[in-house]
UniProtKB/TrEMBL annotation:
One Gene Ontology term of the molecular function aspect: methylarsonate reductase activity
Function as written in the Swiss-Prot or TrEMBL entry: Exhibits glutathione-dependent thiol transferase activity. Has high dehydroascorbate reductase activity and may contribute to the recycling of ascorbic acid. Participates in the biotransformation of inorganic arsenic and reduces monomethylarsonic acid (MMA).
Protein name as annotated: Glutathione S-transferase omega
Top-rank lineage group of the source organism: Eukaryota
Species annotation: Magallana gigas
Residues annotated as domain GST C-terminal: 102-224
Amino acid sequence: MPTQQSFATGSACPELEAGTLRVYSMRFCPYAQRALLVLTYKNIPHEVVNINLKNKPEWFLQKNPLGRVPTLEKDDRIVYESAICCDYLDQVYPDNKLTPDDPYRQARDKMTVEVFSQFVSDFQKMMSSPPQEKPESLQKIKNNLCEFESSLTARQGAYFGGNAVQMLDFLLWPWFERILIFAKVVPLTFSLEDYPALCEWTKKMPECPAVQKCRLDPQQFLEFYKSTKAGAPDYDVPKTSQS
C-alpha cells in the first residue's frame, strides 16, 4: 500500500502533470484499496495522493464534494465512489478485463455487492457497539456469510469470479483482509473456518500478485485502528520493520 504522507486542511494541491492518472486515497481505507487493486492488477500507470479524511484539504472537496476516497483524476476528468471508479477503470483500460461479459453475471455480482454493503455495516456496528447490542449484528453477519458461502460455492471455482480473480473478488477482499487481521487480536465471536469455501478463498486471494502488492501491514493497520477508536486517527502511521 502507498506510504506517502497525507494532505490535510490548509495544504496546497500537488501539481498534476497532463496525461497522468492520479488516485486520491487513504492508506488504510478499504474502499480506496478496491481501486488500487484494480489499478495494480491491470498494470495501469498512476500516482497516489493520500488524503487526511478528518481534516480534508479544501481543494479536495472542490474535486469531490462528498469528500471520499477513492477519487480518480486525469486531465479534466474526475471520477469518485469506489465501485464506480473500478468499473470506469475496467472500461477505459480494457486489458486484463475484470468484469464478466454476461449481463446476468454482472447483475448477480452487483446484487452480491449490495448484500456485502449491509455486511460491512453490520460488522462495523458489532465492532463498535456495547456487548448487549452485539448479538443482533452478529446474527446478521452470520446470515450474510452463509449467503457469500453459497454464492462462492455456486460459482464452481476458487474465486467469486470462478476459476480466476474478477472484479467481485477485488470489491470484497479489502474487508476480509481486515477481518483476518482483527481475528488475530480481537475475539470476533464468529469464525471463517465455519464457512469452508470462504475460508479457502481467503487463503487463495493472497496468491494474487495485485493483492500482494496492495496488502496491509497488520501492525500499521492496528495502530491506525487504535488511533481511530481514540478519536484521533493517525493517517501517517510510520512503516514498521516488516513493511
